[in-house]
Amino acid sequence: MRTFLLILFNILIVNHLLSQEQKGFWDYQRAIEKSISLEDGEKKMISISLPTGTTELIYRVSFLSPNGEIRNSLSTILSSAPSGYAQGASAAINLLNLIGGDNKGKFHIFLTYDDASNYLKTSKIVNSCYSSQSEIPGEKNFLTIEDQFGCLEESTTNLYFTFYNQNLFDDEKVVFELIPWVDIKSSKGWTFDIKEEFQEGCEDQLSNSTMPAEICACILDKFEEKFKVQELINLTDAALNKLFDDYAKSCLSETGENENQINILRLNAENAAKNSEFSLAIQNYLKVVESGSANSIDYNNLGYYYILTKQFSKAIKYLKEGEKLDEYELLIKGNIAHAYLLLGETEKAKEIYLKYKNQNVTEDMSWIEMVNEDFKIFISKNILTESFNEILNLLK
After folding, report:
1. Which of 155, 200, 333, 351 is the most buried (most CB within 10 A)?
2. Would you say 381 and 306 are in contact if contact means Cβ atoms under 8 Å apart?
3. Residues 6+ apart with CB under 8 A from 130
4. Lowest-confidence range among 20-34, 147-161, 346-360?
5. Phi-psi region for residue 150, left (φ > 0), alpha (ψ -120 to 50) or beta?
6. For the segment 279-303, what is each residue's pLDDT rounded down to a tens digit?
7. Distance of alpha carbon 226 from alpha carbon 223, whole angstroms
8. Would you say 32 and 190 are in contact if contact means Cβ atoms under 8 Å apart?
9. How far is CA 206 from CA 239, 249, 253, in A?
């Protein structure tokens, strides 16, 4: 029987299969074929559990006589008719046309058990997402999440099919066949509602970033690619938080948010320095360093603000790190010389001051001009040493 079912549906959906081959698969393992016996006028229901990720399904409903045979003889049918209903040959022929041969029936699809059960009890069709429009011997059709009927949505996990034997006297059987199409990405359980909830929660958590929507979309893509929803549900909070942090770090880099945040720290540091809040400037530059994104100028500025707060050893430490990144940056060389001088290591300072005395620090500033300007700033900040004049005389 299964072989017959597969051949049948392959014939019906061959073009559809070709167009979707890379996106998902027909889940033959969970294909359904049921034979349902119905007495005349009887209604029955079956519940269909859909696999996660079902975005389409194909079904066929066939109303057949039991074993392909006519159950009742003519005499039985005529004798069972209501009094006067089949009097006369003409009336009898009409009666036979009405009740025989076509195995008529109707079926309806409901989204909830309660609505389907209510139909069985009352024959009232309430909240049916699809109903056969006429007494038919059978029907085959597709349902998709784009259908106007609304029977299939991302959140649909069950469908309830009801069948009604429309024959007046004959029993019949309904052969019901169904195969779900499982979208590979949707099969992981990432429904629209779950993704929307994830996005909103993520954006709240990253509200201080400059582009929370883009970062969270990136994180969500990584979760969707690697995990089914159920797999995440089974993780511990610690494991889930680590995954989120790892993906967040990656997405901060991929979206350019890392650089945005670094630039904000740099701007905050320079604004603090303009207000002589050098400790705050240092804090911001230390965050730049901790991020792993510091360049030579960041180290130079950090070292300079350590000098302005009289932390000369720390200044040398970070200026040396900047020197490793750019050994030709004379702003760093100058600040290293300043730190040595103010720390009392005058000979080391002199060696550096004299080595670059004939060079320019920038296109518009000579080494000697830089040293003069820096010494003036140090004096204004009460950062003093008797060696200032000695150094200036050496540079003349």
Report:
1. 333
2. no
3. 108, 109, 143, 149, 151
4. 20-34
5. left
6. 999 999 999 999 888 999 999 999 9
7. 5
8. no
9. 19, 12, 14
Percent of the chain predicted with pLDDT > 70: 83
Estimate to the nearest angstrom the gap between the alpha carbon of 234 and the chain centroid. 18
Vertex 54 angle, CA 53 and 56, to 5°: 145
Q: Residue 99 pLDDT > 80, yes or no?
A: no
Q: Using CA atoms, how far apart are residues 86 and 158, in angstroms rounded to an integer?
A: 45
Inter-residue contact 40 to 170 (CB < 8 Å):
yes
Q: Which pLDDT does position 83 carry in this prediction?
A: 53
* Spatial contact of 177 and 60, defined as CB atoms under 8 Å apart: yes
pTM: 0.52
Which tokens go with 334?
Answer: 């100058």
Give the Cα separation of 230 and 156 in Å (integer): 17
Residue 239 CB partners (closer than 8 Å, separation 6+): none
Cβ contacts of 80 within 8 Å, gap of 6 or more: 72, 169
CB 322 within 8 Å of CB 300:
yes
What is the DSSP secondary-structure string of 247-262? HHHHHHHHTTHHHHHH
Query: What token pair was written down for 289?
Result: 């360093």
